[in-house]
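writing this on my phone so excuse typos. first protein, seq and then structure
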Amino acid sequence: MARTDMMLLLVLALAAFGATNAKTVISLGSQTWTVENGNRSISASTTLPAYPLEILREQGIIEDPLYRFGELATRWVALDTWSFSLIFDGSSPAMQQLRSQKQVLLKLGGVDTFASVMLNGKEILEANNFHRQWSVPVKQLLVDGDNTVVITIKPAAAESERLQAEHPYSIPALRQMGAVGAYTFVRKPASDLGWDWGPAYAASGIHGDIELLGFSNAVLGGSFMSQAKRGDTFEVTITSELLVPPGGDSGQLTVSIPALNLQDKQAVDLDTAKTASFVSTFKVNASDVELWWPLGYGSPSLYNVSIKYTPDSPACGAAGKVQQQQQQQPGRRGVSRRERAQQQQVAATSADGAFRILSGVDLPGALTFKKMNTDSLAACQKWCQETAACQFYTFGPGPDAFCWLKRAPKLAGAIFGVRLDDGKYDLTEGVTLNGFNLGRAKNTSSVQACQAHCSSTENCKMFVLNAGKCQLKEPTPGAYALSAGVITPGSYAMGITSVTPGGYALGGASVTPGGYTLGDTAAAMEAEAKDLDEFMNEVIEIINSDMPMTEEPADITGDAEDVAAACAAAASSQLSHRIGFRTVELVRLPIAEAVKDLFPAGHKGWDVESSFGVNKTNWDGSWAMTRTGRWDHFPKSSDNSDIEGESFYFKINGVPIYMKGANLVPLHILPTNVSKAAIHELMQYALQSNMNMIRIWGGGLYPVDDLFKFTDENGLLVWMETMFACAPYPRDPDFLQNVATEVTQQVHRASWHPSVGVWAGNNEIEGSLGWYSESRTNKQLFAGDYIALFVDTIRNIIKKDQPSMAFVDSSPSNGAIIDDERQFVKRWGEDWDPRYGDVHHYAYDADCEDYSTYPKAKFISEFGSQSYPTFATYAEYTAPSDWQVDNYMTGFRNRRFANGLEVLETQFKRHFRLPATWSAPNDPEEAYKLFRSFFYITHMQQARCYEAAINYWRRLRSQPAGLTMGVLYWQLNDIAAFASWSGYDYEGRWKPLAYAVKRMYANLQVQAIQDGPQTKIFLVNDHTTAVNTSVEVSVLSLSDSADAAECAVQQQQPAALFTVPVAPLFAEMVWTMPTEDLLATRKGCTKTTCYISVTASGKASPSAAEETSESQLFLVPLKDINLPDPELQLSEFRPLRPSQNSAEPADSDSVDSPAGVTFTLKSNRPAVLTNLNTKIKGRFSDDAFTALHPCQPRSITFYPHASVEQLTAAQLKADLAAESLFDHQYGMAGQ
């Protein structure tokens, strides 16, 4: 065996046997905790992280809190006090090793929210912040025998109200419908206490890991970075933070960027028991790196960064030998960890009393209630059989063999399935398993379907089927597994070692990628496996020997050196990150200067010459306030120098990029129920919708690392906010210090992610100072509070650690008069003023389809209109008795308006012909039809509102008085099946808005608008190159049919056909014609019988794919048009092969095509506002067409959600339905 191989195994051996005193980590969260409510009437077992709300749901004590009125039925859970307790053995070998360290910390990754932490009867922490991590020294409190940790969490709503009442002066808080508590006094997601798009659960729980960390040498505790570009050079500053044990330490700190051959080594002397920081600076020529670019502008290139600390005197070598957790029996051959762990197994009993074996895993979540030492498998099985409560045992053989008896929590009606080694399932009724959830529960009552779901899901070993939900489980791995000579994950992890996919990882030593293979042939693998066992036994002998490591006897010099080197490697600590080289500038220039920067040479932009564009602020782009305070007509100034205001746009790597995106809210009422897969699915939706930025709204929670990792790798920029929203906050010293720690932790964590392009201090708090009587009547007090928190605290932290990071104190905001390293002078004023900063726009009393009602703002970071979820999603969380428009449930799930139906209907009446009444109490069939129409109209109205607004702001990028350079609509996603502003509902189904946004955010987009008597065509080009674009303008009749001859004539006679170049990063008006003249090109056409259709296509480069954009324009409100029956048809269903991007002819009943099903949608007459419906979870490649012409059938692909195990063409065909406005238009025009 090669020496390097032996060194690697030595490192693994030292860590696996707990052989180093340098560092010890013991996970407490993976052990079995007891959770109880305040009066102890409820008690359950769980692992952490966990929330009582979910534990109670899993055990059947409560129903799904999201179903019907579950929010109210489970409110008592949030109002109770909950405690989590754990007893762990301080005498175990691992704990003895931990306690031998110079320093021991209890680390709590996240608690929600007001928690007292007790260790052995002493309070060690009083936590009060969801958004931060906690660390407490506990070495002196740990004892031999039983140690008890208790985390008691008080109800957040009650605590927040107490703090509000105790504050020396009244601070108002926004109280949404159905909300609880005073969210401004509790550092937890504000939306947890209720918002206008979601429920109020105010849940308590533990959402982070909890562990004990012991160390005798300094260890890396964190790091952060900043970068700036000066000339052609990037300056990268990396700050490494070391946790120092009592007595100090010394060693070498190495920071490197391997791909660039850059390394900084520092000898560090640490003489205090606190965190020490060290700075490494690198200068990198921009020409030597691939830049990180957002989606559509280049590759999001990333570079690995390694930070490693190696102590001068490793603790494991100082004592002369390494401690061992289990002593070998004299004269016995050493048993390798691999041998022992491979034999570990879990067995489950079934009704016949036999045991079903599941090897290589453990069940700490099932309560271990009895333990014994035995090396007899038969004895362990017999003991379980004779113990009434035993349902599982875990058996580990070897010299320190053990048998642990376990029982699972009871749950009437539940079926617990265990996937055995042979692939079959053992089923037990009446029990469940808390925690270990793998993905989101699947809706099914079928045992067979649940088994199939588990079998097809990676890492699934068990499931619980209860109340129509199949929840997959991934138990804790219990052993290393040896397969084909490769050591693979199983995680019987001890100390600081873990085995990860692709290689071993051990503190500062890692081998990647591809793992450590033991030969290439079966014979070689067998020989290497034998050699490995022999070598591991040699390692054990070295570990157990009394020979000091510092001596070098001739006969074992090599071994001693190897062990010493392994000791040093094990004592070192290492962090790994990635960086992307990029610049992000938030450009705020006077308008004249911004126009020069944004407009291509020779282009002056376009202007609206009619009365359109006027809004409430009188800022219409034709009129502007000059610097002398005089309103004047802006075209009088040819160079735009008289226009009041300043730009607000982002330049990435020097390129001004139009930001297209949406606002993200929490994905679930409990953060522990959000999976990595769910995050990726949501972010994929953003990419598929052509977005390049998402805004993390300040009323929720900071993103987890999985989201940042995705945005980094896929070029999706992040507008990041600290978690404050919609009301003034306190500014007492304790509150400010708490916030400072929170923001520092979060800014440091986010600093490594190039996708984070801007930080904002809050959401809407600047504007909120005008909402409340308290702040309106005492402006100086609340302005002082605002500055103390968002400028003096938050801004200063961000600017200190991220000096080049773009920062806005509030969103929206008028920005600052002075904002530099010396001072910040805020421009106070109405935050909706479109002349400065970003704007949030909501005007529910205005006509949302009239673009003139929207402000010519520089950047729109929020706007929107409501709709309900897709009906398929809504139906999952309600009952058929709820499906009536005037039912209480309809209002209960709309938290924005007390008179929600009235507000929505006012908008609807402007554009749709509605029924005389939405009520049909004596006709269930009619009531259901009306309800479906109501849902359809909310969806289509929402999509049309966003289309009017976004298209307007997209073309305003090149209008001097507009210079709009970004739209982030409200909102990306849902937290529950409620009415909201989202395009992607709680179950991941796309609303019609989502399809409309995908078209509006295209990099090449055509728009047809009616501006007074004119019809105008605009082209928007987001590419960095000019696009030669072919444009076809047609006048189509609502009486057109699918007759082939008629279609041929129409294709040959467009109203206009031309090619025009569109400048890069620009919007241009390319064609205009009086509307009456345009209609006259088609005989018999009027505004109520015909519509305008425009198609544009072009390539950004000769090698690029052709892009096509369409726009349809109706010339009167749709309510004034009598629509024909389009006779929609669905046909030609065929499976889409996983390896293909297009459908291939195949048997329609084929099941080997889970990638999707392709079909054709066509009509016999024009279909207006089409909508496809299926209960099968997934999305369509396109939908929600403004007008589907009978001569232009559409080929559409349905992509099933990952939870859909298989989908045939026949299944989709049987479930799919198509509808249009014709199906939901009531009465006749003019009635």
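second protein below, same order as before
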Amino acid sequence: MAGIRETSASFTIPVTSHDTALCILPPVEQCEHIDSLRELYDKAYGRWPAHINLVYPFVVPERLPQAQQQIQAQLQRNLVSSATRRIKLESAGLFRQRHNSTTILQESRDSSDGSLETLRSLALQALGHKPTRHTFHLTVGQTVDNSMSSLEFLISKARLLPTLDFEIGSLAILVRERTSGEHSANRMRLWGLVDTISPPTVSTVPMPEYWLNDLPTSAVDEDQEDDEDGLSSSTAAFSRAVQPGKTFFFDHASSKWVKMMNLKHSTSQSTSLTVSSYNVLVDSEYPPARDRDPLLITTLLSDPAKADIVVLQEVSDDFLSFLLNNAEVQGRYPFTSHGPPSQPDIGPLLSLRNVVVISKWPFRWELVPFHRRHKGAVVAVFDSITTDRSLVVAGIHLTCGLTDGSVTAKKVQVQNLLNHLTRRYSNNPWVIAGDFNLATSAHTIANALKGKSITSQTGNTLAAIEDQLSGNGILDAWSVTRDEQPDETHCLDTDELFEGEEGATFDPRNNILAAATSGTSKNRSQRYDRILVRPLEALRVTAFSMFGLPAEVNGTSVVPSDHYGVRASLQLSRPTEQLSPNHREMLNGLKVEVQRASQVAAQELESTLHRHRMFLTEEQNLKRQAAFALLKGIVLGISTNSSSTAADIPLVMVTVGSFALDVDTSTSDIDCLCIGSISSKTFFKLARQRLQKADSQVIRILRKVKASTGTMLELSVNGVPMDLQYCPAARVVERWSEFEDLPASDPIFNLSVLSLRKLKPYRDLLYIQHTMPDLATFGLAYRAIKLWATQRGIYSSKFGFLGGVHITLMLSWVYKRIEHDVNTRDSHPIGANDLVATFFHHYANFNWADDMVFDAFFHKQRPRYHRTAREPMVVLGFHSPNSNIAHQSTLPGLVLLTKEFKAASARLSEPAMTWQDFFEPSGAYSFAGMGFGETLFLQTYKSYVSIDIQFWGRTLAKGKSLVGWVESRCLSLVVDTHKNFPNLEVRLWPARFTENKQGEPDKSKDYHGCYLIGLQRAANAPLAPKSHVERQAAKQSLEKVINRFLNQLRTDEKNYDASTSWVNALLVTQHDVQAQKLRLDDRDWGDYAMEIEPDSDDEEELDDPNDEDAELPKLPIRSKPISTSTPVSTTKLRPASDVLNRLRWDSNLDPAEYIIGYEDRFLGAKESSLEKWKTEQTDEEFIPQHRILYFRRKFNDESDGKGELVWERKTRIDKVFGSGAGSGVLSQERGL
């Protein structure tokens, strides 16, 4: 061939062995749709991967090393490393055999660049053979026969597959593995790879042998001949394991159906629910009949069929595409279990007849395969429809026919479904809807027994199936409402209906399509289609009806399908929660008094919030969603050119916080959590590499933050602020599809405290979404409280005030508590205005000194949280580890919060109050460049402490660092001032002020801004000093506090550089402040990326083992650990492992408060925080527990920096359990 050097092979190796193959394996993430079809139609599935053979047969296994070496050498001599070798399989074709045909994918003549021919020729030449012609293809499956319907069916599926388009990284060498015995196997294993000298952008990482999963093969059973599709090979292997499905939703912005990355919980809840079931009938295999499609759509959109959830049976590729491309369907049912196969990036349905669920609400689903091929149940799970549990809707289409084999198959299928629902969803309400294909006419069954079409045993099996469907508290919606509903069975003759024919949905006597399906119009009517309900006190059947009944059109009877559709109306009931006596007693002691705000309208609240920009515009919402999708794709390594959403390494990414709760505003950042199987060090190194390769104008790494939960990256993605954290949890990723349903006791949560702390926000988010009475009402109230707190200058958790998490936890408890109390649920439901008023009233009168805010529905008993003297305010989350969300709160901040709560509650109680007046008091005005809240702050206080910051350095990143550091120190001045002057009201405004002129460019490197702390005598304080001497003494004392704070700032050499910056703190008057004509500082420091040290993105700062040039430091002489005292007891001491587990898992102890002292093999005594202590021997930082010397607290109440020892091996002190010389002080303090 042109361009190839003819070289003689070192040795000629025959290519005659069918036990080996040289082939190309497509990327595993692009094989999803192909392998789904191969599972049902390809007899080689489970033994071969999806592949394109280059040379097959290949060399005998014994000659593989030599063959690999010769081929590799030949490729190195003849291939250009910078060349791109791309494959694009976009054409479907057939290989005809004698009895059947093989459906394949291949390159089209126009798209082929000759790469496959080149690689095959080089490989054969390397082995001493001349190149021969070859048809390169990827096998999809085999047809049953060579009939037109069978051929066109499978090739039409192949044509609907998304195009396989990828670059060749390596050639795979497969070798056959033969084993004998009970679990005999004959399958191809990956022996090795041959590098194709790829460009750097092509990955050559060996792929896992994903096709070797132990799949239960479908043995040909006695009923196999009744396979209803009858269009696939009976020898293919297929899995009967439960398979997670992918839900699609219609994205109006792109006008296409897209996969849901994260489950969107419904934003509103209703008191009723309607479920419909309809068999739409596939009446021809090929060509597909389309004449009934418009009538079917009209029927599904008609009022009698209108429902919240629709279960469809016998759905074909052609009909589903027609259905989901209808604009009205897209608007009414924006969520579906299967996307339209006509959309290029969505693959075909697996079978000829499929079960599909469409809904107005989001859901997640899974396929429960039955023993027979092409049969299975679609189990959809709807969260947030019922108040406390998910609703499970199962769609089924059982085997048809009244034969011994088909009835037995039906019994097994029903049992399989019920077993799955009982095992996975025992505590959830169920709805089972679909075509059961169970003969109900007593006349039909009697004739079958009489004619010996079925045995008496089969007659008993039919009765047993009916018993199965009426057990476990399952109700038939038709039977429940039978006496209340009119008989919709259309009978044109006068024959009396036999038993079991009432409510028939398959009626050959009146439905011409049913007559055609059954072969005669004389067959009896059957009630095949049903909707079954297991209420569990959450559902109540209120109505049942049919649709799609015969209609006269121009004197002709017209029906959309051979089955009638059925619809059930359900009432959503509030569950009566079963509480233990102790739990009920605790709940009764935590009353929340409802405050009705009838004078203000909920409609006005929403419009007022819109005026204050507390809702995102459509453009802003799309921008933020696109930013998250972009970040996710880059971090997870998902190619933008690929339709696959699978990451190249096991990683998942979710959002938490306001974005996930859908209460974010334009100024909110997006909190992202990535969960994976790699270490934190590896992840952040990988993430930073991928982010830096991205467009720097689109994604910028602003800085790395050492947060309380570990390392965090602050990012800007298309101008959207985002935070990225990582949690190493391999087992969580492996079981991600079932993560939301796992109980807290599942072993998967046996993780380190640091990993649990990182998972906690997402687990708490799921609990909130699942248990909130109404997310729309909650969201409206949340926005109102956030706007109020922002205006009042108390929305800033870093300054000890309220944050988004505080509002979420405090508001959710109030909402759930008043909804649970029967006495508060009258005819007038709780609206957002009532909820806001109740929130203010409850926390204005809350006993913060003695009580904690916690969810008493989650915590079955009062949490045994040990609060320190530095925690005046305690707000607890849900899942472990237990920690105080309000740990940064201060006593002066709490006093101010309570004052504001009381003022807000009083204002909302005024008779003439409106939401407009509440947020914008009449007569209020604002200084230039400020809101009325800041203006009021500058007018209220007579004295202020001004903390000035000036910066004239070269890099804006250092300016941002300086401002952030000073900001973090301001709270200490507030605390010290209040400590020395308890009668003063000390208020820090959580925003910077500046004298810079409005509109001055932010790129100016000179900066001058200030923080202000207002000072005034507290309302309940005694009279102020009257004499001049007393006032001067008080002023001097205050100035000493300020000067001490200032001295701490200026002596901090790490953060303060006097050559480029200046900080000052002065006591000023109101007149001095107003004379400066301040405005809010709107400089966006986030535009400037911070300087991040290379390879420092790990949470455990480790040395780089690959740094060979670095000079090895001399090891210090190992020092003997120094004991703090001498042993005082010889009694048995509890081991360090017991203490470690107690401090880590006891719910009333905070692991973050403890330090572990241990003996390093080279450096002697060292310390580490308990949260970062590794217990897995596979961890690089693992330290044996026999080297633990002591446990101590980080700080004591005197804050002298010397934490109290709670356990020490040398002195045998144990204040955790009281063993050794200890007295159990720690246990006694916490009431254990």
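The longest strand covers residues 86-96. thats all i got for now
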